[in-house]
């Protein structure tokens, strides 16, 4: 099995493409099952956030695995294969490991250093575990990915500014209000993870009074109580909009929540931050007078979204070190079946010789036969011990896969999945 990551993010696709690729949480288990049902895909994890959709997979061949993943993404999104390919990035083996570690560390985020991605990765891994689509390889990758992300945030100051997509969006909104959000009347639509982060960030920024609305009233009420805000019924959204200066949209709706018809006729300035994918705000809203809309495309184009963290180099160093360690583990894991096959072959040879001895010397007692068997097994184990320990050590080093190949060749070992049917592509290459 080899590692493959395929995806699209704010770096390769606009929000229109990302919202078509976006996979709602309840739909992820079915997508995972569809992925692992493909011929070349053995394991799968799906990550879908407001600015990226990625598939991490363990595959038996690069080209076959890539084709399988792309076919599923194209079918689910309704995007044609040629159009989809122009928005995808593809990473293989070492590059896939490095990419996953950079994602968890916040290096690949729209707002560098944001920590929300760790929770999103944890949710993606949990969903794959529940769906039984993660095997040994992806279990190890995801566990190490989460650990590396935590280490990056704990050992460096990459997130010392507390930046997130919400805080970056608020900086853009502040410009529209002359640089100060204090005392602006706020409304958050949605009480999920992004909505909760929005409420917390708006509260710290001095926005208030603050109202929260959500289709599930109980969730809005709990969130409002936690932050001293006011929960309003979802069917009172229009009245809440009339009173608001700043609106943050962060729902999981598949249809626009705010339309041009709903917001027409504004007499004073309104800034709307659309942090949802698919979008909560209809594109026509941006053309309305007195209404400013900032969505993921606008945020990506702003200077706040550009990498600027002083600790980026330190995190990159952590990532590189952790990639080397993971690859060492991976190479050691890859040689394990070959070592096991060698020991099995040795046991088979010993057993065959003992059967021959039993036929030639029928006068041996059971005790004598046991003594001979133990001696033979002990000699073979001692002979194999040093070479097998050493080959595991060598396999953990760069280029270590050659030692497993040599063992298979020397002892004519038949090890399943020891060779790849597909040619190995350039690591990190784009399809």
UniProtKB/TrEMBL annotation:
Residues at the active site: 50 (nucleophile)
Swiss-Prot/TrEMBL site (Important for activity) positions: 99
Record's catalysed reaction(s): (S)-4-amino-5-oxopentanoate + tRNA(Glu) + NADP(+) = L-glutamyl-tRNA(Glu) + NADPH + H(+)
Occurrences of domain Quinate/shikimate 5-dehydrogenase/glutamyl-tRNA reductase (ranges): 172-299
A Gene Ontology BP annotation from the UniProt entry: protoporphyrinogen IX biosynthetic process from glutamate
EC number(s) stated in the UniProt entry for this protein: 1.2.1.70
PANTHER family: GLUTAMYL-TRNA REDUCTASE
Subunit structure: Homodimer.
Family per similarity comment: Belongs to the glutamyl-tRNA reductase family.
Biological function: Catalyzes the NADPH-dependent reduction of glutamyl-tRNA(Glu) to glutamate 1-semialdehyde (GSA).
Name of the protein this chain belongs to: Glutamyl-tRNA reductase
Lineage: Bacteria, Bacillati, Actinomycetota, Actinomycetes, Micromonosporales
Gene giving rise to this polypeptide: hemA_2
